[in-house]
Amino acid sequence: MKLSREQVVHIATLARIKLTDEEIDKFSHQLSDLLANFDAALSKIDANVDPLVLNDLADVCREDEAAPSYARKEILRNAPDKEDGCFKVKSVLE
Amino acid sequence: MELTQAVLAQIARTDGKIHSYVTVTKDAALEQARRADDRIKEGKAVPLTGIPAAIKDNMCTSGIRTTCSSNMLAGFVPPYDATVINKLWDSGMVMVGKTNLDEFAMGSSTENSAFGVTHNPWDYDRVPGGSSGGSAAAVAADQAIYALGSDTGGSIRLPASFCGVVGLKPTYGSVSRFGLVAFGSSLDQIGPITKDVTDAALVLNVIAGYDRRDSTSVNRPVPDYTKALNGNIKGMRIGVPKEYFVDAMPADVRQTVEAAISKLEELGASIDRDVSLSLTDFALATYYLIAPAEASANLARYDGTKYGYRAPEADSMWDAMEKTRENGFGPEVKRRIMLGTYALSAGYYDAYYKKAQSIRRLIWEEFKQAFSKYDALVTPTSPTVPFKIGEKADDPLQMYLSDVCTLPINIAGIPGLSVPCGLVDGLPVGLQILGKSFDEVTLLRIGHAYEQATDWHKQKPALK
Question: Across the interface, do A54 and B339 touch by the CB < 8 Å criterion?
């Protein structure tokens, strides 16, 4: 599988990462090489079985119990920007 | 107290060259040592009380910055402790510091750290392995008595092998992942890196066990792992899967591992050298589709909103997010997020991610079948001795191939132990012992019996 520059830009948009021109070139080559290697392996095997669930654990639930949580001040200490006890971001709607 | 002072002095003397640590918590460690001394005097000590430990910097420590060796989290101070850290505090740990890793545990050499490379204590020009390179180097260089690492595809065992120490990746679900910064959530597991197998059993005794805060934690009794260390492996059935001795493996490394297997035979184990695990060749592709896919989802949280780095200049919310991730993540993390995003994207999901998940079941079934015949399997931990810093830095595929012997174990969720088994050109070689899920007891027994019969684990780097 050869990844074009356009495809790399599309994936970067999906992943919300801005890339430089140089990075687009580099990733286009490196990801193509990796995928070629993976394609070669995957084409040699049929795997028509269900995906693995480790330790037979599925749909693990617990009771929803109310309990004290962390103080707002403590949580906001790591925030890059805050205002009036809230996380602050750039406006979402133009 | 004396032990803590000695370890801190060793860090001061040697870490300029090795760089095992991202953060050294000297004052807190001395205070913890003082409290441990009191506890010992009161007769309330347990085996790990007062013992200086190093913690990989991707496990949350309350009030102490936890960086994942990433610019994204350079200033992140967690408000809580990981479950394993809580358990170690309860047993009287002295934490001397947080160790370096490949950014977000993505790598095999600890070269992908935003805060500089860690050097192998046996040869400063070589890598310590990764991603828990700081933890393994610290234990090898007496900068800590034991350490915690995390292992997603070999990140405990490879650095343990490269640094000549013991490393155990426990069964998936046996040690809580709560407070471990997530990379590949279906593969990640915390485990000990220690100077010998007895210490690994002692640390596992403390950190293993059910935790309701980790939904993949398995609720089953935790045995006393030190009871496994009885030296008796007579009659044990051990298989040697030939696929792990890859073509690229140098003859002297192969001979070293084969000599270790012969030693197990001398000790009374019944060795079958003609085992085939034919799906081993598919592990690399399977792993490098599943792990990056999970990483791309797990690392979506780093958007510069709630914690971590935020790009200062931006026009809009989306622009801020994209620039934050551009500047906050290093090249390997971006590469894996890109790879994972692609494997999960519309039109490619079935061919890549879903197929990899199905192969995962086949690999698991193949191991299960092998363990119906054998009590354990033994392999090299790595096909080579530690490589030179920079040697594989520009070739992701070559770097990923460093993990060929360790990846299948995470895919199947089974436990794996690496023990030192010799030196080639003065560089450590590791023997990997694999067992069925939740049978760490057998792995530790074999590793310990081997250790009793040899003295490779007592070899130390000269630290020149």
Answer: no
